[in-house]
Amino acid sequence: MSTTTSRxxxxxGIAATGATALLLLTGCLSNTPAAEQxxxxxxxxxxxxxxxxxxxxxxxxxxxxxxxxxxxxxxAEAEAANYEDVELRVAEGTNDVNLQISQVEGFINDGVDAIxxxxxxxxxxxxxxxxxxxAGIPVINVxxxxxxxxxARTTVLGDNYGMGVSAGTYICEQLKDTPDAVVAEIxxxxxxxxxxxxxxxxxxxxxxxxxxxxxxxxxxxxxxxGEQAASSxxxxxxxxxxxxxxxxxxxxxxxxxIENANRSEFFLVGGAGSANMxxxxxxxxxxVRATVVYPATQAADGVKLARLIANDRSLGDLESxxxxxxxxxxxxxxxxxxxxxxxxTAFES
Length: 349
What we know:
The protein is of the alpha/beta class and about 350 residues long. It folds into two domains: about 55-160 and about 295-315, 3-Layer(aba) Sandwich (Rossmann fold); about 160-290, 3-Layer(aba) Sandwich (Rossmann fold). The chain has helices at about 5-15, 65-80, 95-110, 120-135, 160-175, 195-210, 225-235, 250-260, 275-285, 300-310, 340; strands at about 20-25, 55-60, 85-90, 115, 140, 155, 185, 215-220, 240-245, 265-270, 290-295, 325-330, 335. Helix 3 (about 95-110) runs parallel beside helix 4 (about 120-135).
């Protein structure tokens, strides 16, 4: 059933305050590796899981042409299945902006109670998201931000800069006794802000321990692109101490290039947190020593938050009476010491 007009107006009133609350989930306030922190698990002791008013949530995301993106929708569906009071209507994944806009317009016409939206292009989907908000439907924006604060009730983001910081900090810890270490970087698509943020965080963290990126190449988040970029890197650098690869999907190709080049004098840190890389870490026989998580559970978080917002509830363990407007997820480092904590929620590349 749909929410009442009065409740929608109340929800919009909350969004219109423009107040930004930044919450780092998992109880972490820094980029210290998770193994060094007392996470205490991810269970709350509130009654938020108790059934509430039946709600309908519309969900739209890009096509699952990447392991991480595929896991986004799977995790959202699994989260919705946990609640008997949630009906999740999943639109077919698409990289066609116009089609995704029409999907959102369909949700508006159907009068859903909330929309969870990972836009293919945040700027292009902003206008229709505002339209939904103006219709009294709270929009949960996931991963790729809209260009207007009026387009979403709550935004869930990963931490690209934090990924770079976490990777750089880990490499600093491993190479603290090697001041002239050769550090290499295999980035994603250089023109994207997320790649630029990851590289900036990585450089900042290395600078803090006196290291720098000696060799850098860029790929394109694909297996083929990762293999080509890594092959070029290995040919250009006869000796390397550590590599950070931004993306575990392209990391499949990176590992193929390393094997083809018969190189093993360095260790590699991955990015995003795929199950493939975590199994490499767990086995401990190859060059992969760690990966930095970019949670594929962001849309699942969006579903959970949409349910809370539609039922006028807040997050557990917060004194505030409403769900925060902005939530940025933590980017922990996964190593052999803590891989078992993350493997069951990792995605397959």
